[in-house]
Design goal:
elongated, 2 helices, alpha+beta
Length: about 70
């Protein structure tokens, strides 16, 4: 039998995630955690500067035909 592999790629919009990180940084009272949150934000911004963030789903399609008796 034959199978089909389907790959679905979609661009992710992570601006909401970045906004949430900014809010968490402002609300953080511990200075070390505030610095780490800022560093993480910079890392994420550098990462998305290199290209789009993608979500990928992989599906295996197996055909089905009923056998009539």
């Amino acid at each position: 039998f034959s199978i089909e592999i389907v790959i679905q790629s979609r661009r992710l919009n992570i601006t909401g995630y970045l906004d949430k990180l900014k809010e968490l940084e402002k609300a953080q009272e511990i200075e070390l955690l505030k610095i780490q949150t800022a560093d993480y934000q910079k890392f994420i911004n550098d990462l998305i500067g290199g290209g789009a963030i993608m979500s990928k789903n992989f599906f295996v399609v197996v055909p089905f035909t009923s056998i009539e008796i």
